[in-house]
Amino acid sequence: MCAAVTSVLLLLHSKSSLLLKKAYISILFIFLSISAFSTHIVGGEIYYEYLGANKYVVTMKLYNDCINGLPTAIAADSIAYFGVFDSNGDTLQVDVVKRFSYTILNPSPDPCIVSPGNVCVSLGLYYDTITLPPKTGGYYIAYQRCCRNNSILNLFDPANTGATYFTHIPDPSVVTNNNSVHFTQYPPIFLCEGLPIKYDDSGTDPDNDSLVYQLCDTYTGLSSIQPGPVAPSAPPYTAVTYLAPYTGSYPMSSSPPLSIDPHTGFLTGTPDMIGQWVVGVCVSEYRKGVLIGTHHRDFQFNVIDCPLVTVSSIPSQVTFCFGDTVNFLNSSVNATSYHWDFGVKSLTNDTSDLVTPTYVYPDTGVYKVMLIANPGSTCADTATSTFKIYPELLPKFSRPAPQCVFGNSYGFAGTGVTTPKSTFSWDFTSDATPATSTSQNPTNIHFSTAGKHLVKFTISDHGCTQSYQDTVIVLPSAIPNFPSQAGQCINNNSFNFTGSGQLTGSATYAWSFGTHATPGNSTQEIVNGVTFNAVGKFLVTFTITDNGCTVSKTDTIIIYPLPIAKFDSIPQTGCRPYTAHFSDSSSAGTAISYLWKFGDGDTSRSKSPVHTYKSAGKYTVSLTIVTTNGCVDTLTFTKPDMIIVNPGPKAGITVDQTVTAISDPNFIFGDKSLNATGCKLFFGDGDSSLNCTSSHSYSKPGTYVVKQAVIDQFGCVDTTSITVEITPDIRFFIPDAFTPNNNGLNEFFMPVMDGVTQYHFMIFDRWGQLIFETNDQTAGWDGTYKKRKCQQDVYVYRIELTDIQGNNKKYVGHVTLLR
Question: What is the pTM of this model?
Answer without folding.
Answer: 0.43
